[in-house]
Design brief:
Blueprint lengths: L4 H10 L9 H9 L3 H14 L18 E7 L6 H9 L4 E6 L11 E7 L2 H14 L7 E5 L18
Helix pairs in contact: 1-2, 2-3
Length: 163
């Protein structure tokens, strides 16, 4: 896909993140002289063409009152990883779920899921719900609560000039 000057402008305005308004694409369009539907259409085309690989958002949980955030790591048998990963991701309190390789002998965990909560006890109860409802009471796991926050932001791009 050959990018136009307008596409470069759009990506530049998107890079810092969407504005926190009810119609963010309309607000972006106002900045660069496009209407809302044109902004959305151009983003869709760039996603389809692979110019934009990922279009998402970073939620700042702490500011929303979610201060008991935990990564729960599980030693799931390999033959159950896909099944359990799909089951975990169906729970609305699981905000992230993914597989990582074990690092034996010190790190036997293969499935990770993030749970954000307002209170530590509520998060621990949700971990128990996962264990009970997914038949994992006897599976080794660890709940790792966040102790420090790092700056969260989306991708940053160095834009070249349009040809």
């Amino acid at each position: 896909m050959d990018l136009t000057e307008e596409d470069y402008q759009l990506v530049t305005v998107l890079a810092p993140g969407l504005p926190f308004v009810s119609r963010p694409y309309a607000a972006i369009g106002e900045q660069i002289g496009m209407d809302e539907s044109e902004v959305i259409g151009r983003i869709e085309k760039m996603i389809e063409a692979g110019v934009i690989k990922r279009h998402g958002l970073v939620v700042r949980h702490h500011e929303l009152g979610y201060r008991s955030n935990a990564m729960c790591v599980w030693n799931i048998p390999d033959e159950r990883l896909d099944e359990i990963g799909k089951r975990f991701s169906a729970y609305d309190f699981v905000t992230l779920c993914y597989q990582r390789p074990r690092r034996l002998p010190d790190w036997p965990y293969s499935l990770f899921c993030m749970i954000h909560g307002k209170e530590r006890e509520a998060v621990l109860k949700q971990v128990e719900v996962l264990a009970e409802e997914c038949g994992l009471l006897d599976v080794e796991r660890a709940v790792l609560f966040s102790g420090r926050r790092f700056k969260q932001r989306g991708a940053r791009y160095a834009m070249k000039e349009a040809q």
